[in-house]
TrEMBL record:
Keywords noted in UniProt: Signal
Organism expressing this protein natively: Ottowia oryzae
Keyword DNA repair in record: no
Family the entry assigns: Belongs to the UPF0065 (bug) family.
Pfam family, one: TctC
Protein name: MFS transporter
Matches recorded under InterPro entries: BUG (IPR005064), Bug_dom1 (IPR042100), TAT_signal (IPR006311)
Length: 333
């Protein structure tokens, strides 16, 4: 009798088990499709033009994420409306893991700043993880008799017209850092908005305005050159790049911890397995020494953590800036 014909009962049982195992082997990839992601390049949308801090950080992270994921991560700059154009684009994208967004402090501010948005900053995004945080620095024109926050307060109180503070535009984190300090200090402070940080700094150096809560990467070269004087930094800890500059907390304002921040996010409804895979990849990227070094050069502190950490942090930021925006009476259309 041919060994391949009329199998015995024992052989039939072995064949049945083999068939079941084969069926499971075929079914498993179908059930675990998110595990096969990604199979093509991933787009990372940035709501600002190329060259700014958000873009630079996004490009650094994109290259490293691509290495982790085995597919290129391509930065797509969609500037406009204080990052709202890019956010709306991603909010409407398919939640398949192939379109991501650099969610920032601006999105939590915009939730209250704009009466109408084309997206919901909370419901339309799944946060994957925090990337990094960058503090602001209170800087003044060095011709002023201000060398500390106490001097700043005294100058504002003694000056007939108070003190002016510039910003990169109404509703920016630079502007609202000043508004938060104004709320806390009760000083007579006049906001002078500009179309970007560069022209604001130019006028600050020229003496047209008195002060500014500028982003550290923007202000640092001018502080080092002696063109601006750093009074206090808005993070909870001092910066290694300016170790002699005290924090706002050390200068008498407990809890004053304001930083620009950046997070990785995806459209709401993205499969949890993909979110977890991206979070794991992001945390590995942020642990790499060369990434940490590059961020440190920008005065940025790597963040990382879980998606839940990012959600809680963004929720707290939404509440914080809602109060500041309303108190300042700021709005945008």
């Amino acid at each position: 009798m041919n060994a391949f014909s009329a199998p015995s009962a024992a052989r039939r049982r072995v064949l049945a088990l083999a068939a079941t195992a084969a069926a499971c082997a075929v079914a498993l990839p179908l059930q675990a499709q998110p595990g096969a992601w990604p199979t093509k390049p991933v787009r990372l949308v940035v709501g600002y033009a190329a060259g700014g801090a958000t873009d630079v950080i996004a490009r650094l992270i994109a290259v490293k994420l691509g290495e982790q994921l085995g597919q290129p991560v391509i930065v797509d700059n969609r500037a406009g409306a204080n990052s709202n154009l890019g956010a709306e684009l991603v909010a409407r994208a398919a939640p398949d893991g192939y379109t991501l967004y650099v969610y920032t402090i601006a999105n939590t501010i915009n939730a209250t700043l704009y009466s109408k948005l084309g997206y919901d900053p909370v419901k339309d995004f799944d946060l994957i993880g925090l990337i990094a945080k960058i503090p602001n620095i209170l800087v003044v024109n060095p011709a002023l008799p201000i060398r500390s926050l106490a001097d700043y307060i005294r100058y504002a109180k003694e000056s007939k017209n108070g003190i002016t503070f510039a910003s990169s535009g109404s509703g920016s984190s630079i502007h609202l850092s000043g508004e938060m300090f104004k709320m806390r200090s009760k000083l007579n402070m006049l906001h002078v908005p500009y179309k970007g940080s560069a022209p604001a700094v130019t006028d600050l150096i020229g003496g047209q305005v008195d002060s500014m809560f500028d982003n550290t990467p923007s202000a640092l070269p001018h502080v080092k050159a002696g063109k601006l004087r750093a009074i206090a930094i808005t993070s909870a800890q001092r910066s290694a790049l300016l170790p002699e500059v005290p924090t706002m907390i050390e200068s008498g304002y407990p809890g004053f911890d304001v930083q620009s921040w950046f997070a990785l996010s995806a459209p709401a409804g993205t499969p949890p397995a993909i979110i977890e895979q991206l979070n794991a990849a992001l945390n590995k990227v942020l642990a790499q020494p060369d990434v940490r070094q590059r961020l440190a050069e920008m005065a940025a502190t790597p963040a990382g953590g879980t998606p839940e950490d990012a959600r809680k942090f963004a929720g707290a930021e939404l509440q914080r800036w809602r109060e500041v925006v309303k108190a300042a009476g700021v709005s945008a259309q």
